Input
Amino acid sequence: MTTIFGIPSQALFGQLLLGLINGSFYAMLSLGLAIIFGLLNIINFAHGAFYMVGAFVAWMLLNYTGLGYWWALVLAPVIVGGLGILIERGLIARLYKLDHLYGLLLTFGLALIIQGLFRNYYGVSGLPYAIPAELTGGQRLPFMFLPNYRGWIVVFSLVICLATWLVIEKTKLGAYLRAATENPTLVQAFGVNVPLLLTLTYGFGVALAALAGVLAAPVYSVNPNMGADLIIVVFAVVVIGGMGSILGSIITGFSLGLVEGLTKVFYPEASATAIFVIMVLVLLVKPAGLFGKPA
Amino acid sequence: MRESAATVETTPHSAAGSLTVEGLEGWYGESHVLHGMSFDIRRGEVVTLLGRNGAGKTTTLRAIIGILGKRSGSIRFDGVETIGMTSRGIARLGIGYVPEERGIFSSLSTYENLMLPPRVKPGGLSVEDVYTLFPNLKERAASQGTKLSGGEQQMLAIGRILRTGAKTILLDEPTEGLAPVIVQQIGRTLQKLKGEGYTILLVEQNFRFAQTVADRHFVVEQGRVVDMIPNAELDANIAKLHAYLGV
Amino acid sequence: MADTLAPAIEAAPIAPTLPESKDARALHRMVFVGIAVALVVLPFVLYPVFLMKVLCFALFALAFNLLLGYGGLLSFGHAAYFGMASYLSAYSAKIWGLTPELAILCGTATAGVLGFVFGSLAIRRQGIYFAMITLALAQMVFFFALQSKFTGGEDGIQAVPRGHLFGLVSLADDRVLYVLVASIFFGGLLLIYRIIHSPFGQVLKAIRDNEPRAISLGYRTHHYKLALFVLSTTLAGLAGATKAIVFQLASLTDVHWSMSGEVVLITLVGGLGTVFGPIAGALVIVTMENYLAPFGAWVTIIQGVVFVVCVLVFREGIVGMIARWAKRPL
Output
C-alpha cells in the first residue's frame, strides 16, 4: 500500500473526499447565505434548519409517498423554497426598515421553532436514507476507492454552484439581483418589482440549502440537529470568505472542506475546530475576509 | 416667506401628459425639507427647477418618483394621483428618473446597465438608437459601468431611461462636473428629445445651460416654488435670478 | 403602501437611547431601592434556589446587554464566557479545593481573559459579522469543552462543593448562599450602572451612535469597544462562576450556543438597551422554563416563538414598554 507523509493513501484520499463533500455543503450553504445577505441584508440563521428540512422532506417523500431520491432532488427544494417564500412574505419583510440584527434574531427564533418541531416528531436518533440504486457501488481508482454517491455529491454541488454563479453573472435576472444588491431604491424606481425579487431570492437561497440537505441525507443520517451545528461552521466560512463575492463563497466553501479533511488525517483532535482557527487567522491578517471588500 | 410666493402663476392642470405638483411636503428622516411645493409641467415642455444648494430641488424629484421616505400633498401625472403609489408603480406610468449621482451600477457592465430598466411604455429607443445618440456607449459596452468617465456615465444614465419608453424624464443636474464639450453634447440631446415631444423636468444649478433648453424656470427656495420665469424673459430677469441664486 | 425597501441610513438602531435627566436618576434610585427590598423579601416567598437561578441569569443578561445596549455590539457567543467561567469555578472549587469566593474569582478572571482574546478578534468587524464571529468563537470553545479532560466532557463537573465562604461560613444552606448570590448580583448591577453613567459610558454611547465622528474627535474607539467587551465578558463570567457554585454543576449546556441564544432572548424580552430590562427578562424566561420543563422539546419551540413574536411586535421589551409609558429611561 502506498503512503503519503506516512499516511496510507487510501486514508488520506478518503478523508480528502469526505472533506470535499463537507466542502460541497459549505459552498452551497454559504452561497445561499451570501446571496440572501447581499440583497436582503439579513443573516439567515434558519439556513441550517432549512438544510435539515430538505433532508427530512426527502425522507418523508420516500416513506409517506414512495417518491424516491430523484424526485426529492427536485421536490424538496421546491417545497422548502416555497416555505421560505411564505416566511419572507409573512415575517422577514416586516423587518427591512429595522436594524439588520433583528433579522438575525428573527431567523434564530425560526430555527429554534423548526428544529424543535422536528425533534418533537422524529426524535434525535436519526433516520436512515438509502443511497439511490443508480449511485451505489464505486470506482476503484489507482490511489483509492471512490464510492459513486460521494463523487456524485461533489460533482452535482459543483454544477449547482457554478450554474448559480452563471445565472447571477450572466443573465438579465442576475443583473437585476446585482443591481438591487447595490441600490434597491433606484432599481425599484426604474419600475422593477424589488419586493418580489427579495422574496424570490430568499426562496432560492433556502432552496439551495434544502438541495444540500437532500444530497446529505444518504451520507449523514436524517436528524433534526443536522443543521444546527453546521450553520455555525458555515458562518465561520462566510466570515473567512467575506460575503462580497459569489465565486469567492464557492471557492472558500470547497477549500475549507478540504482543509478540514486534511486536519482529520494529520491532527484529528483539531478537525472540529480547524475552520474556526482559520477564521481567527483570517481575522488577524485580513479582517474583511479573503474575498471581501474592506468596510 | 416671500411676497412673490403668492404670485406664482400656476396653470390649472388640464392637458393630458402633464405633471402637476400641489402642496407637496417632504421629509428626509426627521427633517422637513419640502414645504408646499407647487408647480406644473405641460406635455412636451422642458422645465427647470433652479435654486441654491439645499433648496429642495433633488428632494422634489425624489418625491415625484416616490423614493422619498415620507411625502404628502398631491402629485398628479396624466391625471393620476401618485402620492400614495410606490416608486415602481410611478415608474410604470411612464416616468424615467436620472439621479444626480447617476446611479450607474458597478457590478453591471455598461450594456447590462443600459438594459436594466424595464420597458414601461411602447416607443422607447432601441439599443442601436441609444448607441447612435451616444456612440461612446457602444465602444464601452463590455466595460464595468462605473469605469466609464463621468460624461459617459451621464450618457448611460440618460440612455437607459430613453430605452424604457418613458416620455417624462426627471433629470437631476446632468451637467454637474462635466467638461464643456460633454455639456454641449447633453444639451443637444435634450434639444433633440424636446423636439421629439419628451417632457423633461430638469434640476440645474447652471441656468446658462438651462436657458438653452428650457421653456420655463421655477425658482425654488426653502422647499417651495417662489417664482416662475418664462425662458424668454430670463435675460430680463437676470438680476432677480442672481439674487435668488446668490451668485 | 409605504416604501418597503431598507435604506440603511434610515434603519432604526437596535437600542435607542432615551434622554437622561436628573429626574430619571431619582427614578433609578427608587428602582434600586425597590430591587434591594425585593431581594430581601423574595426569599421568604419564593424558593431561594429558583431566585438564585433568576439572579444568575439576570446578571448574565445585564452583562450581555451592557455590550449590546451601550456598545451596539450583538454578541451571539456569550455562552463561552458564562460557560468557561462556570467550568473554572467548578474545577477550582472541586479539584483545587478553593473557597467559593476564590473559585468564583477564578472563573470570572478566566472569562475576562477569554473576553480579551476573543474581543480583540471580534471587534475587527461590525454588525452582523461581529455576531457571526462571536458565535463561531464560542463554538470553538464548545468543542474545546467537549474534548478536554478537565471539563468532564458529556458529564460535566458534578458535585461541586459549595464550601465555606472565606473558609468560615458554610454555604450548604440555600438561604446563606442566597445572601452571597444576591450580594454578587446587586454589586454587579451597581457596577454596570456606574459604567453606563461614567465618562467612559458617555464615550461608548458616542461611539455607538456615530463611530466615525468619535474617531474624528480623537477617541481610539477600538480600545473603548475592547474594554467594554472585556467588562461584559467578565461580568458574564461572574454570573457563570456563581451559577456553578449554586447548582454545584458545570456542564456543556453552559457553553452551548443555545445558552448564547437564551441570554439574547432574556434581554430581548426584558428590553434591549434598557438598564433594568434584563432582570425582568430573566424573571420571565426562567419562570417560563421552570413551568415548561416537563414538556421537553416544546421549551425550544416556545423560546423560538417568543423570539419571533418579540422581534415582530414587541421590540421594546417589558421594561422598554414601561419606560415608554413612564416617559423616562429605565
Summary: The first strand of chain B starts at residue 19 and ends at 28. Residues 180-195 of chain B form the longest helix (16 residues). Chain B has two domains: 2-94+167-245, 108-164. The two ends of chain B are 21 Å apart (CA to CA).
